[in-house]
Structure of RPW8 domain-containing protein:
Amino acid sequence: MNAKNAYEVALQTVVVELLKAIASVTKRTPKFRTLLKRIDKTLREIEPVLYGSGRLSRVLDRPEKETKMFIFYLENGKEIVLKCSRIKCWNVYKKFVHANKLIRLDNELLWFFQVEFKDKLSARMTGLALVDEVDQVVSTITKRAGGFSSFGNVPGLPDLIVGLDFHLKELKRLLLKIDNQVLTVSAPGGCGKTTLAKMLCHDDEIKSIFGDKIFYVTVSRTTSLKTIVQKLFAHHLHVDNCEFRTDEDAKNQLENMMRQLGSHKILLVLDDVWSESESLIQDLHSQILGYTILVTSRFMFSRIGSTYELSLLNDEDARTLFCHSAFPNDGNQISVPDDLVSKMVKCCKGFPLALTVIGASLRGQDVVKWTTTLQKWSEGQSIFDSNCQLLHSLQASVDALEDLPIARDCFLDLGSFPEDEKISASALMDMWVEFYNFDKEGMYTSEYLQVLSSRNLLSLLPTRKDASELEGYCNEHYVTQHDLLRELAIHLSSKEPIALRERLYIEIHENDIPDWWIQQTQSSIDARLLSISTDETFSSVWYDMKAPKLQALVLNVKSKKYTLPYFIKNSKELKVLNITSYEIYPTELHELPLISSLSNLTRLRLEHVSLSPSIQSICKIKNLQKLSLIMCEIGDSLESCTFDPDPHMLPNLIELEIESCYNLKVLPAGLSCSLNLQKLSITNCHELETLPERLGSLPNLEILRLYSCTKLAELPESTVNLHRLVFLDISDCLSINSLPDQFGELTGLRVLKMSNCHGLEELPVSVTNLTLLEDVICDEATSVDGGETDKKVVYVEVDEEGGVGRWKRHQGWCQIGDWAFLVVTGDNK
């Protein structure tokens, strides 16, 4: 027997023994089963070569030393296989090392038989070597076999991607900027977060940095830390059947494995993380140098790392994606008119999932189907009625609020307001104070808005940077909501029969009153919240409605003239009334006296409406606690109330808010009889010249905001009697040139805002008595080194004990010698 024949027999024998060892171990233990099956498959593919005529001879036609080493390696491989059953389940590190030995065994088999299996080698080698020793073997195999991808188990990309190139560029910039950090891609469901994460993983620059150290794990809502780590070991580290005693054990084992990978940069992608899993991100964020976590989530994790908010598609990209789904052959419509396509795209509001799902639902449909679909939507049918996939995707975020039922109710209440409009947090608070017993300071409103914002169910708009805690959160905040989310809120609120719904949302186009309303005039509805939206052609033709449980009524107006529905006079339980006009000019409001019969009304908000002298009927509402007049045209309708104080004027009023009422000149003198008034806010009323002389007769007033009342010349002398006043804002009151001499008697004052008071050059000496002041907000101070300044200086003398000098710690104040200086913009002085 010549040497070649001897090697042939030896090779056949060792392969058979290796097969037997694999079969035996696979039966006895589930550990490494995946890898063992893979080696078994390779050996089965090799068998025809071992016994095929002349084929093995071609394989063995290589240096004798190389063949002997390979046979020795396979004999050693048998011992590696047999050792599988002796490794303990809890020893993850040994499992990891042993798994890589099995991987190398399979690689060597393919390598040695590459004459017959070169194509299989290229197809199957996919980033399985994870330690230095195996990396060297893989490198050798790659060179000999023509190379293979070292990229791991990252999902593939969809056929068409639009509108994400800019986001990919920004995401890469942020990801490479941070090191050893967490970066979250956040957006509502169906916006393309997962696609963006996949694009990042497939990006050449990212792969050149992280190599095969990109680990991608999809996280389900009920995922535990142990489950995530098990997926990592199984899919990327190729260690099956990991058993961890605790989450802490799983974390420690993962950390050990990451350290074994050396100094290479590591990218861990956690896709579709839910709010319940925030702690998992923290646990996975170990302090290994170069270890970066990319998270995709419909929630925001503000306490962890940085957040990149993914925006929706613009019109051009939205149309491209829609047409690709609706017309898959070439993306161009053949028989569907262009205007129908444009309208359908507009209905999808830039949501990638909506564009894809709705486009697919219309694929191959004739023009009639397109037209009737649009017609149904315009008549009030929800877009979710015929698109379950879209509904389930977006509803999942709402369902995640199951442990926060009030937050879910707050989300549903947002359907009360028109699409594409800002919603005042103050308007929301008005409802939520009554519905959910929220505090009247707005802190609970703030909390729940933050909860909804963190879940991308609404967006919080930026507020004034100098807003004070004492002013109240809601006075400065607005929110917006995407149209599809608003429609989702309405859809989820409309599952019950109309008469039984807790929230009832009605949209009236022209004078087309819903049939059910006309037919049910003799029966009642159970709605607690009623929202009625009308368009510019509505002529205030109302039918009767019996709503004995109604607590909040929101009227969204777009017509030039508007008559209040007369059925509200019978809504005896009504506590909140919000009337807002979205017309270009203030809507002329009629039949306002109807509300005078609402004995339980506690909160009234009128926005962008023109009020006739009938506004005086508001002043007789006995239980009204808060009155908001926003951008209203008031004119002289209050003048008749200014001569004689009326002891019956709003006896229970706690808060009066007047904002941007451009033609307001005077306040009613009777206001001084509202003894329960705690907050008086008059802002951006540029025609207001005077305040009631008896303003100081409000014994409970705590907050006085007069921001940007540019013609207001002075504060009444009686202001100094407001001993409970803790907050005063006269910022941008350009005409005020002095404060009352006894201003220091406001001894409870904690916050004083007085920036841009150009005429105020000298403060009264009595301000030294304001010992409780915590914040003084004014213009920036001049330098203490006597350098040149283009600002005007006003001053007060400091007493021997420091007095006003203590203000130097606050914005806008500095001390030079015995003087405290306050600087305001103006000419040099």
Summary: The first helix runs from residue 3 to 28. The radius of gyration is 37 Å. The longest strand covers residues 291-297.
